[in-house]
């Protein structure tokens, strides 16, 4: 795993905090500002369209008043009743209508500028036309298609706005306001149409006040899906996709891809003319201020990030530099080189840490010197105590080794003497040789450097001497596996236990059914030797007493050397000798049942590590 440094962590955390702050603030600011700008632009466009819609309705209402004047004029009504071939009446009423038109139009300057022409068309096919630029106009022959379109308008007297002109040259540049007119009697049916052509170019001056930027434009769609304004839009097919969206949206704002560009369309329907006034601007242009805010936010964020990282670097150095110095000094201190750090100019927490470090180094130096002195003194005392203890243990070992039952030696010597007097026999030689081996084996002082085979050989010599003394042959059953004969054990521990059995397990003498069995095993890191007999056993009180003495780890007292004590001295000494060599965790244990026999267990480590050498 890659090791993380404190400086790297500081820079990383600073970077995370700064970047998260800038991203959150920048994203929220950009989102809020974009949303606010979109709403503001949308509201601005809606206000402009509403204003244009209001002014348009005002102008159209003024022309409606003019249309009402014509439709209610008695001369116009009379004109609708003339005969188609009566030239005189046509001339009379045409002149009257011309004068009425001239006086009505010239009285209002705005109407004068925006009016293209006024014409009155009767069901009989005769018409009167007043052109704004030419006060006297002869009666033209209307094309049949235009005549039919005029006659199709509603007959309830309401105003109808038509996207048409009686002159092909004016087509697309004017809008016609038409109304059917009844005869002289208001109860009669409709007799004709009064139509007023309004110049869209003049009316468009009102719409041109709508500021829509470089790529924005304004257009009008009537309720049938025809484009009224501007003339270029009139070339589009009626009720195409854009016009259908405008009609379906009502007064709602929508986005639509127009000429490969995403645009916003704000539509308002006039309650007077049933026109849909629509303003359009590219979405990209609408969001350009938001893009400017975003770019500015990114630039300011990057500059702020660079400054913050520089400040983080400076701040990190002011913290990390003294910490690194403290770390290097501590490494030198670990090597034993007491190194102090200059505290000048540091009054903050790091200065306090450096002061504490210097104080710690001073105290540690003094303490270590004292510990060294105490350790040297302790080692000197331990060495002297160890030498004294070693001498004491050696004396104790020698004393234990010399505690061989003197009665056995005396009886043996007496027996040898009797044999020598009575007869000259090889038995004397065998007995003397066995005794010599025993004495030589007993006086050696190296307690542990012997094997199980050595101890068994010592027991064999003991049995040779014992058989010559008692005159009875007795064999010991040795069941030790051959692989364990070379295991190490303590010298002079097996023979005293065998001797103890002969003295106390068989007080009435050895019978043919008696046995002594020696076995051994290795288990759980321990090496154990078992000596088992089927003698009288040990009474429970005596067994408890012996176990207590074994737990106390003490040698037998001098007054316990008598045989009446049940062999306590031999057992105690064997137990203590094992502990002196291998430690307090090892030794002798006794299991016995009164009247059925005893089992002695010597426990030693599997791998012998000598503690003392004689």
UniProtKB/TrEMBL annotation:
This protein's name: histidine kinase
Histidine kinase domain ranges (all copies): 421-608
The entry's keywords: ATP-binding, Cell membrane, Coiled coil, Kinase, Membrane, Nucleotide-binding, Phosphoprotein, Transferase, Transmembrane, Transmembrane helix, Two-component regulatory system
A Pfam cross-reference name: dCache_1
Organism of provenance: Paenibacillus germinis
SUPFAM superfamilies: ATPase domain of HSP90 chaperone/DNA topoisomerase II/histidine kinase, HAMP domain-like
Domain HAMP: 317-369
PROSITE patterns to which the protein is assigned, alphabetical: HAMP, HIS_KIN
TM regions (residue ranges): 12-31, 293-313
First-level EC class: transferase
